[in-house]
Amino acid sequence: MRPSVPALCGCMLLIAVPSGLKASKAMTWNDCVLLAREGNAGLKSAREKMSAAIDGKWGAWSGFLPQISAGVGYSYDKYDTTPAGAKNSDATKNYTASVTASQNLFAGMADWAKVLEKRAEHEKAVAAFDAAKAKASYVLKAVFEGARYSQQLESLADTIVQRRESNLALVELRFESGRENKGALLLSKAYLGQARLEKLQARNAARIAKGQLAAAVGEGADEIEAVGRVPVIEPRTEDPDFAALAPLTPDHREAAAAEDAASALVSSARSGFLPVLGATAQKSRTGEDFFPQNGKWSAAVSLTFPLFGGGRDFFATRAAASTARSAAYLRADTDAELVPKLRQAWATYVEAVTRLEVDEKFLEAARTRAEIARQKYDNGLLSFEEWDRIESDLIRYEKNRLQSSRERVLAEAAWEQAQGRGVFE
Prior knowledge:
Layout: H1 5-11, E1 24-28, H2 29-39, H3 41-59, E2 67-79, E3 90-106, H4 110-176, H5 182-217, E4 223-227, H6 242-245, H7 250-270, E5 276-287, E6 294-304, H8 312-378, H9 384-419
Parallel strand pairs: 1-4
Antiparallel strand pairs: 2-3, 3-5, 5-6
Helix pairs in contact: 1-4, 3-4, 4-5, 4-7, 4-9, 7-8, 8-9
């Protein structure tokens, strides 16, 4: 079940509304998309995480490059040079300057494992960014369509009040002429009271929905009136290839990247059992004056074999292997759910489109029946009970059509989100 529009609005982390700019205004869908693209804090956060992952991926290659450092030093030594009891002492001072270069030749595959780990983390961050864009797109469509639906419902409620007032006037006229009973008159008055209550509820709901849209786009207005509608696309007649779509979704890509990162950690942990080979070269100068003049070159190659580390490498490898298996199981579980999830989203989308078409046909028929029934009732050719049923059907179908229109937009948005797509491409 998809979350409600108010709950979705709470998930939208967007730019704050500046003080002193409160106003009411009308905005189109494209206006809202442009503002949300720049102000969506969730998108900004995911984008920064992806940027950090890129830097981490390139930084991981530093293990294969030489490390160069330079340093200077000064020492002062004072020591006795005379027999015990004498007062004489001697002192020396020494300046040093050096440049050192070291090159890792083999680190037990730890450096390559770090590259693979950071590469997987970058892929995961990219998938997370795509998921954040798809979620933001769904939420924005939900709040925009929610505002549009509430505005239309408020307009419909006003029309229903006018229709109930007209119906009551007709029933009163027939009652005063003795052609209608008091029960029909009282019921017509009750219908009018109910219509006025629903108009009040619709007006309050519209104000809330407009406020939610204003908060979502961060325009700085108390309320935003939704102008136009969210663009929709008709679904194709044949079902998509769900098995081919599943590997392209952010859910699969995140799970697969997490599995790759866990596998890289296993290689990194195993490197503790392998020897380390490195080379170092240094150029240094020493002397009693600065800058020292006595130069010296040195070079060294070292090969270190780990013999026993207290069990640290053994248990670290076992823990990394368990983490890798867990990530593999999680990826398999995610993949198993993807095709049914996509199939369900697609079915809901297609059904919503068809339901809207059906409700539009019912509404057209109900309007025609209501016109005919009103004329018949006015001429005494139709009972109040039959006329009342036709009028109630018309109101019900008008409300159903509005709700189906909203559900059709939300179903398409949910189908896009399931694929990791949306307006923020």
